[in-house]
Amino acid sequence: MITASSSPNSAWIKYWGNRNDPLRIPMADSFSMSLDGPNVEIDIDHSPELVVHSFNPDGTEKILGEKHVARFGKTLENVKTYLAKLEAPDAIPASCNITVRSNIPSAVGLASSSAVFSCLAKAIQGLIAETIELTDDQASVIGRLGSGSAGRSVHGGFVALVAGEGEEIDSAYGKQFADENHWPLHDIIVVPTMIEKKIGSTEGHPTAHSSPHYKDRVDAIMNCRQKECIDAVLAKDFEKLTYVCEEDVLDMHMVMQTSTPALHYLTDDTHRITEGIIELRNAEHLPVFYTMDAGPTVQLICTDESVDRVREFAYAQEGCKVFEAKTGAGAKIIKELVHTERSRSATVA
Ligand code: DP6
């Protein structure tokens, strides 16, 4: 049995829309910073059939709906197709027994699925290591098959999901540009509501193509925005990073809002928080920028220099919950239990 741990990431160039929905092959590149928490742990072992258990942060079992279990089943099926392509068709001979322990409060607006499926990918990488040694880029493909953004959380630090070309299962993969020691940044997460969103990203991606602005968005990312973001991170140029990330998040939400059906994830609270942080940034020349995913939660990315002031701002937002994270190291294996007869009986006992 293998136990892995992982955390979500903060998306700066947003992933929105696929060229292949079932395989989660994105239309465009995306970029994120892996976070150091909150974390998810997954135990995995071989099993004749698929078994999935999930536990909440308070330790109670979360009863998974059919849709959730089916998502794990579909992901494993796709993983087996990928392993066959890598000439290891028997690396997972039947199915897996998966136990998920999440410390991520649901509906925080932090993509918990990016943590869960990057964690699953790392756990699978460990489980099959005797049959085939996967690189982290290959493990990121496994993460992507479960949740597109999870393709970025396998690696630590600053990571792209490279869209690649064509329809091959591994044409898009996660690529690390700098590790977690490159630039210590903070993510102060301001959550206006804990109510779960109605339309998740998986259901949202197919609508992207219906927006008249979508083609321009993809072109902008592929022609310059992704490179500008990577250059800003490598040069630790916070001002340039602020410009490119805020441009991208507004662009993604414009696409969402002009799709059919239109998706409105931002609320009055979101706008109040982003306007407030711009005012503070201008008044005090603070290095801080905002970003939002498919929900009203605002992530405030800042440096050591500005974190105290940003924290103060965040906790002053009425009716909001605040979570804090920093640059993280990506998914890792934290326990390996070898199935000797002794360990098996120890586990049973
Ligand atoms: C807006 O397909 O990774 O957060 O459906 O929860 O698995 P799930 O999400 P995913 O889409 C994420 C979309 C995004 C932007 C991003 O993370 O890049």
Walk me through what this model shows:
The protein contains ten helices and 16 strands. It has 349 residues and is α+β, with helices and mostly antiparallel strands. A six-stranded mixed beta sheet has the order 8-7-9-6-1-16. A four-stranded antiparallel beta sheet has the order 2-5-10-11. A four-stranded antiparallel beta sheet has the order 13-14-12-15. Helix 6 (214-234) packs antiparallel against helix 7 (238-257). The chain starts with a strand and ends with a helix. Ligand DP6 is lined by residues 11, 14-16, 30, 111, 113-114, 147-149, 200-202, 293-294. Ligand DP6 binds at residues 11, 14-16, 30, 111, 113-114, 147-149, 200-202, 293-294.
Which structural traits does this protein have?
single chain; 349 residues; alpha+beta; six-stranded mixed sheet; four-stranded antiparallel sheet; 10 helices; 16 strands; 23% strand; disordered C terminus; binds ligand DP6
Number of strands: 16
Shape: globular
Q: Which range does the strand content fall in?
A: 15-25%
Mean pLDDT: 94
In N-to-C order, the SSE pattern is: EEEEEEEEHEHHHEEEHHHHEEHEEH
Q: What ligands does this structure carry?
A: ligand DP6
Q: Give the distance, in angstroms, between the N- and C-terminal Cα atoms.
A: 15 Å
Counting H and I runs of at least 4 residues, what is the number of helices? 10
Computed structural class: alpha+beta
Spans where pLDDT lies below 50 across 5 or more residues: 341-349
Q: How would a textbook summarize the main sheet?
A: 6 strands, mixed
Instruction: Assign a percent range to the helix content.
Output: 25-40%
Rg: 20 Å
Strand order of the largest sheet: 8-7-9-6-1-16
